[in-house]
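Take a sample.
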Amino acid sequence: MALSRRAFLKTSAGAAAASSMLPALGVCSSQPAQGAEPSYSPLNKWPGRLVNNYNRAATDNLKANREIIVAMVNDAVTLLTGEKDVGAAWKSIFPKELTTESEIAIKINILNPKYPPHPFVVVGIVEGLKSMQIDGKSFPASGIYIYDSNNRSTFEQAGFLKEYFPGVTMNHHGKMQRDFGDGAHNNTPYVETLNKCDYLINVPGLRGHSGYAGKVTLGFKSHYGTYPPLYHNKDTQPFLCDINCTGPVFKKTVLTVFGAIFGLKEGHGPRGDADSYLSYTKKIDAATTNPAPNTVLMSTDPVTAEFQAIKIMRMRDNRPFTVESMPAYLRSSAGVPAGLDVNYNIGIIEEEKMDIRRIVNGKRV
């Protein structure tokens, strides 16, 4: 049963206690000063709620296990929503206006074709969407669109093979964006797929960056594959706030799913080979010898999802993950003043207010 916003806030203390399985390497601020009133999207059904699903068997060296990763996605969506049936779980994420004529965009990032958000995570999402029953009919594959832009990688190079996604439209927009009159940041042009679709699922990977947005390139910066990277300089952080907190990304996002099966460490990337996350995984599963992060994060709250992805990177390096240590774009997007001219509040950044639900090696904990 879905919690109301009021009920969620009343139970946040208990939820925070339940999320304490992992060792705290940093202490979050208790009450950071809020600079903006909450303005959560109506499509953010459960602000602050997130599933962290880790499974050591998701990979063996560099080989991924499709069956296990799809099961991880299924388990995450049912735990997130409280629905037992996978199709019903996916349907519950969307508003009641969802029909078999609706169109759903899935944003991936293939700039680093060697280590994108893993294709099998997207396979799990697509299969789940197709299992939704609406007025006695299954949601059609023809209503699902996978897209990226602003890179020269191909879907095939990144492992997104057409046979994995029968009937699904896969659009690589290159550097083509258009002004549809409703883009963020003074109507900046964006890709046609997002304009066409009614709903958006953001599927980033786990990657660092040598500079720019806090040395990470995660869910927020993934939308440099939706918008042109016009402000890839000193204005990066406020631009990331604008394109994620206003316009079609804000209005259409229903879910963020981190396909963190492999990952690059903070500060390393966006291109390059995967790094060992053994120092992270051993904090969850002391018996593991698998260095891959092998994690799926799922949340309707883009701020909460981004925070938890950064937390994984910080746990790897034994670094703090306090609110104050988060990149400025994330703090400003959560209503916490961070020295930027912009200040939104689209999600929850304080971990003690989050409802973290965990699965470890196939078992809910």
Summary: The radius of gyration is 19 Å. The chain has one domain: 5-364. The first strand starts at residue 49 and ends at 54.
